[in-house]
Write the structure tokens for this entry.
Amino acid sequence: MGSRQQLGNYSLWMLSWPIFIELFLQFLLGAADTLMVSKISDDAVAVVGFSNQLFNALMALFTTVSSGAGILIAQRLGARDRESARTLGVIALKVTALIGVVISVALIAAPRQIAMLLQLPDRLLPLAEIYISIVGGGMVLTAVMTTLSTSIRNTGNTKAPMYIAVGMNIVHLFLNSSFIFGHFGFPQLGLTGVAISTVTSRLLATIVLFYIFLSAFHRPIRLPDFKLFDRKLFHEVLKIGWPLGVNMSCWVFSQLAIFSFLAMLGSAELTARTYMNTLESFCFLLGQSIAMGVQIQVAHLFGAKRTKEAYRSAYRGLYIGLVIVSVNAVIVYFVGDKMLGFFTSDPHIIALGVSLLSLNLLLQPGKMLNMALGNSLSAIGDTRFMMTNSLISMSLIATLLSYVLGVKLGWGLSCIYSCMIADEYFRGIIALFRWRGRKKLRQAEIGMQQAARQAVAAG
């Protein structure tokens, strides 16, 4: 990692470490949320975990635009087309803000109906109605914040989102503590307070990110610039972005379906899975940051026509990530029972969580393989292939097989978890063969050769 594989002035490590800090702070936010909410009740934890899966599913609606724009921003900057990169950032912000408003209105209007549709147990519905309406009502902030962070990060400035994450975590933890425990004269509002804390911290983060975004490109963005709309560029965003959106939709909807299956098994299984999500996040944080750094680097290199360097960069990130996530999974295997004990004293929930620790040793390398090479393929525009891969694997293995074996045949939580592992490896191995085939990279190389011959002929 210290070999300084350069992307202009950015090595993989320079791109990845701020992303890691940002993700780590998000992990702390989630872990602290879970820990503090567990002081309210295990039911409150189940509601938060369930609601977050719903929010993740809805995020796919604006991730289509933000992710596609982010990749194109990196490619255009690699090709030194800075004006198009700037325009892409403006277009993405406007479109995702509009989508976020629509989602927020829907979640404010029908939180209970949505929870019932997704099979949440009846006794959890009152808590879900409160949490979904408040946090869901702030989804427009999530949409804008995601787009701002993605645009800024893909310019190569991965530090700014990290600093914002620090501030957001501090505010969120302060407000969580105040509203849950009644510190500093605040009223004790329970889960309602947690929801208010979440929305407030995101609002402040969005304001600061917007200020940074205005100066993120070669020319500052002014108010009149928000009238910008280039149909050709937006078409490019959708061309590369809609498969990414479908890809993410497959993942989040499969996770949402799995949480619904767990709700059918019982609230204890649902709660144990929520706690395990926290432990899994710890394992994968640095690996995920490396995979995200690789995507930015590969996109820049691909845009600069440095295809051989882009090809090698993906493998370098994969090898580093595999070592890291495997070591982290071993650590969690030995201390996982104690970590679960921080969240709950229910022996049944702890036992369910502990039963998944050995399976997590298998899960983490599969996730790293899938994410590192999947991100690399997305970075060079091979998003339709990734979409097809996800549609097949997640629908048949992660979702259908989980339901048949885990619910219908009654094999339970461990079987559902095993299906998730099989899905990660299937997608990862397919992505590996696709990357080794170098299809998109060869097409780019042929295009460069043709352009060179035309230039010689014209000269």
